[in-house]
Design goal:
The complex is a heterodimer. Chain A is mainly beta. Chain A is about 0% helix and about 50% strand. Chain B is built from no helices and ten strands. Chain B has strands spanning about 5, 10, 20-25, 35, 45, 60-65, 70-75, 85-90, 95-100, 105. Chain B is globular, with a radius of gyration of 13 Å. In chain B, about 40% of the residues are buried. Classes of the chains: A mainly beta, B mainly beta.
Amino acid sequence: QVTLKESGPALVKPTQTLTLTCTFSGFSLSTSKMRVNWIRQPPGKALEWLARIDWDDDKFYSTSLKTRLTISKDTSKNQVVLTMTNMDPVDTATYYCARASGSYLDLDYWGQGTLVTVSS
Amino acid sequence: SSELTQDPAVSVALGQTVRITCQGDSLRSYYASWYQQKPGQAPVLVIYGKNNRPSGIPDRFSGSSSGNTASLTITGTQAEDEADYYCNSRDSSGNHLVFGGGTKLTVL
């Protein structure tokens, strides 16, 4: 059974760095073609893809946010960490992690999401 | 272009067929995936690849593609299908993902 769960602060102040952790089970990120993505969704708005890390440690970032994002993995802990620097109120959103497997990059399992509010 | 365009809202009568579309240049090269999102819930994958359904997704959901347009068709729409639907695909680089703006489906 594949599960993912996001964790991190519910509230961050402007200019601070956000660190989110995705803890997963039911698969290994050391298995070929396994990938974990981060996606966010501002309240009432559309989904936005942020970043992805692959089984071979390849990393990919949203073009518009790449200067602020870092993704990493700890395979032994079954965790993926996303950091986003210089947080702004427009970054207020529900942040999801989601697995992709195989060649299509489809997001076949999602976490429940965690709401992050940026406010002073 | 890395954008995917969806109609903001679509409505369908109960039991009828509805098509939700997604347009973008990258769809000429890559398949779209489709996600259903109900209020307060995480998205759920309903269609991927050429026209594949994950386990547990009813066969009234189907996908197709032509040129720069991908479509999600729901045949015999049920009340529980009322939700937001998002398409996504790779961008022109092939390595990044991009989402459409979402379509709110109302079942009348």
